[in-house]
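User: We ran a pulldown and think these components assemble together. Before we commit to crystallization trials, I'd like a predicted model of the whole complex to look at. Sequences follow.
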Amino acid sequence: MQQKAHLPLSVFFMLAWRNLWRHKRRTIITLSSIAIGFGLTVFSIGMQDSGHNNMVENAINMGDGHITIQHRDYLHSPANYRFLNDGNSLLESLEKENINAQIAPRISLQILASTAHNAIGAAMQGIESNDPLRKLLEKKITTGGWLTPNKPRGIIIGDGMARKLKAKVGSKIVIIAGKKGGDSESQLARVQGIFRSGIDELDKYLILSSLEYASQYLIAEGGITENKPLTRIAIFLNDDKSMEKWKQILSTKYNTEEVVVLDWEDMLPQLVQYIVFDDLGAYIMQFIILLVIVFGIINTVLMGVLERTREFGLLRALGMSKNYLVTMVLFETVLLSCLAVVIGWIVGGSVHLYVATYGIDFSGMIPEGTTFAGTFMDPIVYSELSSERIYQLTIIVFVATLLSGIYPAIKASRIPPIEALKS
Amino acid sequence: MTSLLELKKIEKYYMQGEIQVHALREIDLKVAEGEFAALVGPSGSGKTTLLNIIGGLDVASSGFISLNGLDLSTITSHALSQFRLFQIGFIFQAYNLVPVLSALENVELVMVLQGRNKKERTERAKHYLNIVGLSNMMDRRPSALSGGQQQRVAVARALAAGPKLVLADEPTANLDSENATALLNIMFKLAKEEQTTFLFSTHDPRVMDVAHRIITLSDGMIKSDEIHSQ
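Assistant: Here's a predicted model for the assembly, 653 residues in total across the polymer chains.
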């Protein structure tokens, strides 16, 4: 037989569209349930991504940047004597890499801070005057001011520590650091400023000093002043997405038996784990929502198929092939899912835009000073959705709904015309 | 006259629960091109089964059947679909129009499947709707048409696609006397003008009156086959 059947897409579309609106109420209810489910997913993912991004951003900014170069053993066994002997050469070499980033040399020390009233264990961070930490903490200073070169023994402490040590601006504090052999190195410092960040870990345990002041303790461990001994070099990239690339380049060049290049994920494995588990929980929830969507569509399309058995028999009798029948039913599903995605985006997108603009204040639910996995979350959360997430969500719902149409479509095509016409 | 349809020793069995029903027995039949023939007989005599086998909606248990030179007993399911699409026009007792399509679109539907272009199928659909007297109701959906009007749309749909053979299963059974007579006249006129072959199953004496040939079935067998002079 030479003649071949042909059905244009426009006809599939027209038939599918009209069939979809045969039962307006049913279609509207199905569309609403899909759209609400989809909207909820968009909203929850937007909030969750925002929370994660916020925590990662805070971890990077308050921590040691996107990429850190430090002593190989420091991560698992931090000790003051595990430092980079030749900070100068490393810094000069890094300058030549032309990294689009801010490079911050730092000295981290575990010390005992002592006053006439009390003594507490603390973490001292020796930084340069342009260190990114300054941007974050200078505005949090409640008394006194930032470090100045004319006061080389000046330090900044949190208000929690100030309370414990009963220290004020101008108070003397003895900073004692243990040395490798068991001895200790003590230096006098004077409080130049007191900050209040609202983060317990910082307010109670962080002491900021100049790099030069902190370097005395490394020199006491055998470091050479001219070589600029450092605990680490923190690299704050201007483009987050370049982290993988730079980690690879720098690892190839600087990894040695003593030195290692790490990214924030290596430095904060507990944060990575927290995000992975949190994502997993969210994926399970999304899967459940998706199942509801899928069964909603199967229900609508299957009902539509079963009540049109006779009509499908007629179409088969008139010469419509099984493939065309499958395509016609799938078209109905595609249209239903397109409408659902559009309405879902309108619902979810509106909520997302509102929350992205005005945020939701969780300060009543998150006590001040709460930290998670080595970082913290700002109490006001602004929804965030990346373009990848938008594509991902759209495609997942679209594919799920399309797949949910396959069973009704195949069922329709298998109806024998003669039986269907008798029904 | 050349033979359009040929059936040789057609047998049909089917199961009804656990009982095997012998629906058609050794049917031998030839229908010439342009014939207006009626299959008559009591309910259960095998009229609809025979029409379904001729139309490729059902397959014979044994025997040979050919239409326009095509052996239907050996072709695939897909080829049968194509056969129905291009060679057969169906008119059903229950009209069987697609409810979401207008009268015009219903008539166009088979031509759309055939791949005819928009202009041609619209022209043909309008032409046939005009012949069946529905030129002012083309945009109405089936729910807005009476039974008689719906069956006229079905006649237009069957003929607009240009089939070799039109099979009509009790086409007037659901119509009142006036509509049944009008429909028969339309079909008879079209058959004559278009030289299309019609094969009816019917109980309606009016159909028997206009038919050229009356084939009587009983218990799945042809009891008589008479040519009527018009």
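Chain A touches chain B at residues 1, 3-8, 11, 15, 18-19, 22, 310-311, 314-322, 324, 417-418, 421 (CB under 8 Å). That may be worth checking against your pulldown data before setting up trials.

User: Thanks, that helps.
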